[in-house]
What does this fold into?
Amino acid sequence: ARYYHTRHAVWAAALAGLLIFLPTPIWWLHKLSEKALLLPASSSSRGIAIGIPDSHGTSKTWEKVTVPWHLRLRLNGESEEQIEHAMAIKEAGGVSLEESFSPEVTKEKRSDTSIDQDWPIDDSTIALITDKYVLVTTIIWLGPKIIIFAVPMLFFQMWPMAICRFYVSVVPDGTSRIMRSFGFYILFAFALILAIPVALLAILSFVLDCIAYYFFSLLFCACTCRWLRVCDGWKKIQPYRAGPSILLHLPDLFTALIGQCGR
It folds into this structure.
């Protein structure tokens, strides 16, 4: 009984628990990543013709399909709504939808990527008031938040990022792909455990940001009666709110962080 209450026994039990329980989730994550690449293509492409041959029976090089539809969305981090929006822009003539330009701008100019779309400067009184309101409220909220969160966030981020840095230090120069091997998932599991504190801090920071931003935004809209502009803004960003979940693709995030550490 005395031994089981010693520090040596606690560490021995913790290490034994890791050796017993870690192999199973690592094996499961490895199998999950393999199955994700073998799933059949989704049939719900909503009629979006990517890589469909033209009237001459050929398709342009940049429109040829090399991976299934569902895998292309996952690799690019896109949603079907985003692709529909992009294809609508393409059908409208190029780089932006028609409402982004003045009526006198021709379709040829809209398709010219060297020409910026119209960005008229709004120097009205309400615009200047809005800019000052955003500046003041940002200082009121982000000032104390940075002072409180900066040091803990940097401290807790250091340990999982150290694993990423170690991983990329043993990868040969010129490597174009990080292989999802058994060793990859072992390091990923350790990085995931070390990232729990910084993940909790990030969630707390996000919740506090939402509270502050919505409080100041609703207050501003209530005083200026700009509810229609808010609804229009929500409508514009709606196609970009249905992308893949980061929580379901944490190994991909780990791979991206490894690549960033090698830059």
Notes: Residues 125-169 form the longest helix (45 residues). The chain has ten helices and no strands. The mean pLDDT is 78. The radius of gyration is 25 Å.
